[in-house]
Amino acid sequence: MKLEKAAAASDFWDDSTAAQAKMRQLTKLREQTAVWEQVSRRLADALDLAELGDDDLLDELSQETEALTKTVANLEFRALFAGQYDDENAILAIHAGAGGTEAQDWAQILQRMFLRWSEKHGCKANILDQSSGDEAGLKSCLIRFEGDLAYGRLKSERGVHRLVRISPYDSSSRRHTSFAKVEVWPDVAEDIEIEIDEKDLRIDRFRASGAGGQHVQKNETAVRLTHIPTGLVVSCQNQRSLTQNMQAAMSILKAQMFDLERRKQEAEIASLKGEDISAEWGSQIRSYVLHPYKMVKDHRTNHEVGNAQAVLDGRLDEFMEAFLKHTVGS
Q1: Helix count (H) and strand count (E) of the chain?
Q2: What does 18-44 look like in DSSP terms, one character per residue?
Q3: How far apart are CA 203 and CA 268, in angstroms?
Q4: Same domain as 307, residue 184
Q5: Which pLDDT score is estimated for 66?
Q6: What 8-state DSSP symbol labels residue 79?
Q7: pLDDT band, residue 96 (cuts 50/70/90)
Q8: Are 287 and 165 members of one domain?
Q9: What band does 280 get if pLDDT is binned at 50, 70 and 90?
Q10: Residue 140 sits in a domain of what CATH number?
Q11: What is the SS3 assignment for 229?
């Protein structure tokens, strides 16, 4: 293997940062290869047993066949994650759309939905920053997800999410439509080399605050980074110290800059092919309808379910799978 030969070279560790990134990649590839090799051995053993024609082994073979069927189905699903960064951790941001309290409440509902999803998958979720709404909900939040195929799964959630319901904040009990924007980036800051010139960066320090404006820290531990050339802004306040918040914010900024450049290249390639690239904020990807009926529908794949509450409680896998199959097939 190319990576194994590189790792064996005498000068491999001369560049420790690059070496560590390659070793992480090599470890992932070895783990993936080991799974397929194990399944191959189990299949061969099962075939050998079947050829013996011993009736006493039928129950054992039946159980192994059922287990292998589930394992292969899972591997087939994982094969859908063909993107270069699908096995990376993910950074997800939620921004309330226009509409004040109603939209900010919707942003918080989405945050809860993604946190519930991460709990179901044993995925570690760390809220890096959030801005509380004026009366309720959230104006925005930033979450890092660490777990198996985190970015590969969550990339399906990028776009505008639309909620239709009877507003609990409307005294006349009228139906309202709210929007929130979700952004997702692969957490690849450790694996890429992006140089940020200090003169292109504005750094603002401020006190971390919680709901109601109460100060969580008396010192200025929160940080906001503004990359002037691109206009990218990252805030981080939920770490314990200014240094930790600065490191987290810089990591996220690098991931955003990397993703921005990557998507620019994809847009250029698509334009050469004659494809239309729609603005993300202007195209809703999914609607969550709670009144006059209950339904969640993904407008890219046309996949829909009637149990809207289950989706809001984190049952997102079928939407993610439908998106992956749609993407691979398109």
Answers
A1: 8, 11
A2: HHHHHHHHHHHHHHHHHHHHHHHHHHH
A3: 32
A4: yes
A5: 87
A6: T
A7: very high
A8: yes
A9: very low
A10: 3.30.70.1660
A11: coil
Residue the block writes with tokens 């997702």: 184
Residues 176 and 295 in one domain: yes
Instruction: Name the one residue in this structure whose structure tokens are 């993107």.
Output: 83
Average pLDDT for 49-70? 80
End-to-end CA distance of the chain: 31
Contact 83, 155 (CB under 8 A): yes
pLDDT of 310 strictly over 60: yes
Helix, strand, or coil here: 50? Answer: helix
One-letter-per-residue 3-state SS of 152-200: HHHHHHCEEEEEEEECCCCCCCCEEEEEEEEEEEECCHHHCCCCCCHHH
Which residue range(s) make up the domain with 261?
198-273
What mean pLDDT do residues 199-218 have? 68
Residue of higher predicted confidence among 45 and 163: 163
Shared-domain flag, residues 96 and 168? yes
Please determine, for residue 80, whether its predicted confidence score (pLDDT) is greater than 60.
yes
Give 209's strand partners: 215
The structure tokens 């809860």 sit at 112
Assess if residue 83 is contained within a domain.
Answer: no
For helices 58-78 and 16-52, the axis angle rounded to 10 degrees is 150
Specify the amino acid at residue 226: T
Contact yes or no for 108/132 (Cβ under 8 A)? no
Per-residue buried b or exposed e for 61-99, using 16+ beta carbons within 10 Å of the residue's own CB? eeebeeeeeeeeeeeeebebbeeebbbbbbbbbbbbbeb
Query: Is residue 300 one of the residues assigned to a domain?
Result: yes
CATH number of the domain to which 251 belongs: 3.30.160.20
Could you give the CA distance from residue 46 to residue 253 in angstroms, rounded to a whole number? 51
Q: How far is 18 from 11, CA to CA, in rounded Å?
A: 12
What residues are paired with 183 via a beta bridge? Answer: 93
- Domain membership of residue 27 (yes or no) is yes
